[in-house]
Design goal:
Elements (H helix, E strand, L loop, with lengths): L1 H23 L8 E5 L2 H8 L8 H15 L3 E5 L8 H4 L4 H10 L5
Parallel strand pairs: 1-2
Helix pairs in contact: 1-3
Protein name: Polyprotein
Length: 109
């Protein structure tokens, strides 16, 4: 679950930066950004109150993501692993899976 917290905290920080940049150029967001996560245990802990058993460096990331979710800056939503578009950028995938993910990303060619 450590990887999920690291990824969620890094992505959330980038989302906040992009939202602030958009505000600087007078673009207002209509809704909060959805953060897709395939770890149901991580989602449950972000939405709940469980903080037991984590290392200190992970606890800081966990609290950061939990805090921005409470402030409605991001919404954490479950996404099945097979629908995770980011896999095309982060994992070695076989050709059929590559074609499927490319289609999900609306890329052609």
């Amino acid at each position: 679950m450590e990887a999920e917290y690291v990824a969620a905290s890094q992505t959330s920080a980038e989302i906040i930066g992009i939202v602030e940049l958009l505000k600087e150029i007078s673009v207002q967001m209509q809704s909060c950004t959805t953060l897709h996560e395939n770890g149901q245990a991580a989602i449950a802990q972000i939405k709940g109150e469980d903080t037991s058993g984590r290392e200190k460096h992970i606890d800081v990331r966990y609290k950061f993501v939990k805090d921005i979710a409470k402030k409605d800056l991001v919404t954490v939503q479950y996404c099945e692993s097979k629908k995770m578009r980011a896999d095309i950028l982060t994992k070695t995938v076989p050709a059929p899976r590559l074609s499927e993910l490319r289609g999900l990303m609306m890329l052609s060619g």
